[in-house]
Every structure is written in C-alpha cells, then in structure tokens.
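Worked problem 6 (solution included).
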Amino acid sequence: MLARKVITLLLYEATADLPVTHGKVRTPLTEADAISMDREVVAIPVLRSGLGILGPVLELLPRVSVGYIGLERDEQTAVARIYYQKLPKMAGKVPLLLDPMLATGGSAAQALDMIKEAGGRDPRMICVVAAPEGVKVLAERHPEVQIYAAALDEGLNDRAFIVPGLGDFGDRLFGTGS
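Solution. The predicted structure is:
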C-alpha cells in the first residue's frame, strides 16, 4: 500500500532528531558497528484510522510501546467525543500521535491534551493529509508539537472535510465506506 511507504518516510523525519548511541553488536561471524535510539517511543493511534499508521511504526522502531485513544466524530457538529483511552507509562518516552487526517484539529488537540495529562513530553503528530485549519488549531493549543504531514491540502469544506483530501481514511482502509 502506498500509504505505508508515505508513513514510513514521515516516521524517518519525525524521529531523525532523537538521540542515538553508537556501539557494537555480535553477528554470527564478527562484531559490527550498530546504532540504537536512546529514547523509547510510544505510538498512539487515534482509533480507528490511526491503526493504518501503526504497522510501519512497529516495523521501523524497536522498543516501541503502544497506547490507544478512541475518538468518534459527530458528523453533524464535526466535534469528536472520547470513547476510549489506554496509554502506557510515558516518562522518558517520545509520544507519536498517529492520525492520518488533521482536519479541524479538534480531535488532535483533545488527544494531545490526554497525552500531556498522562505525562507525555515532546509529542509529535504524524498524519498523511492536513488542512490549514487543523494546523492552526494545533499551533494555538499545542505550539510545541511538531506536525509531520505528507500533504497540506487547500482547506475544509462546509462539512469540515479536507479538500481535496482522501475521503474517510478509516473507511477506505477497512473497506467500510459507501
């Protein structure tokens, strides 16, 4: 899937500044140089579409723990309600918020509030497509958060959907849309 490749590239960028240690590992034949990350990562997908970003994180990063935040968008108001939260211990770890679409910014801001309340520091947001409105909301409510997006689209339509956007990422990923 092309989305997996895009997400992997975003992950490289989102973790490029994390501190590393140079060392050695033993192979079956000899010792070899190795690099390991000094900080662990907590991957936090926003259910359910964020699950589509989780696979590449688990493949790319060692020692990753996973938390979950369930947010459901009310199609009439475009405001999300929280229905589930399960976060691991965050101390000393880098939280990666995984949500493929950053539209109004409301869900992302709510999720970042929860991550911070749980002790998360230096969070990063990884999304496939962002709208300027969502970027603005995060800049106002969580200015320290770095956003890694593959595309910054034109904006939101009157129903708060990203234009041109991708449609409902979760529906497309899981084959549940119309």
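Discussion: The longest helix spans residues 2-15.
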